[in-house]
């Protein structure tokens, strides 16, 4: 009898927390908005962003991945999904925002930016506000919003990066990529000295190379820019990444036991652990402001 009472109590408590979770008021939950960016192109942003998203989902988080690459957006290629509609269709009022949210593996929510983010520069203030408001409601249903941005420092890319709560600068250890990563950190920190920037050292040969490269970059940022850039960690060079790209499957799922997959899971834990709190809730205000300014 007491066993049964205990079971009932447990059921009631489970139900309560489920209801609490489901009735999270829209627009009030503060998702963490994390931009994944780089100086040099082709250093592994998209692969990292996609697999990081899946790593976070495996930790029980709800993740929305926004492909904010304005040039060669390819989150969908890495995931093997084929989104017909993107934000451009929403900006042109041909589709509703919820119609362009695709489901990837493990329930990952995916929005393709397409031409939409450029088209936002041509819409009126009211439309911009309505669009960004919609995006905000959608984001409020997720724990994380990850932004996969294009490489480089175009003003639209910078708008997304600067509006985010946290910025992950991906680089590899090659001098060209390191120089460009440093330049990116410089530009971001000039615009916002309080920006929360962390480094992801990708495609390293071994721990020693990773440590050396991370030290070099973080020391240079501190010494010459006065900016404290922490490292989120490193991901080894791993042939399974390329193999997975060819299969159009994320390596975390296709090759879960390989060094790259294990490293990304660890980085997801690093991001999600520690002082993992809510985001600032200011991303969308800042984004609206930046886009307004771009048009001015
Ligand atoms: N850890 C890794 N080990 C081995 N190869 C990798 C690794 N990370 C990325 N690559 C290779 O680099 C290629 C480019 O990666 P990805 O498309 O993610 O880069 P990107 O920074 O998003 O590029 P872009 O600037 O064009 O958006 C991948 O197709 C893969 O072959
Ligand atoms: Mg990319």
Question: Which tags fit this structure?
Answer:
alpha/beta, 296 residues, Rossmann fold, binds magnesium ion, binds adenosine-5'-triphosphate, globular, 16% strand, eight-stranded mixed β-sheet, 50% helix
Radius of gyration over C-alpha positions, nearest whole angstrom: 20 Å
Beta-strand percentage?
Answer: 15-25%
Percent of residues in helices: 40-55%
Number of domains: 1
CATH homologous superfamily assignment: P-loop containing nucleotide triphosphate hydrolases
Please trace the helix and strand order, writing H or E for each element. Answer: HEHEHHEEHHEHEHEHEHHHH
Shape call: globular
- Kindly name the structural category: alpha/beta
- The number of helical elements comes to 13
CATH topology: Rossmann fold
Number of DSSP-assigned strands: 8
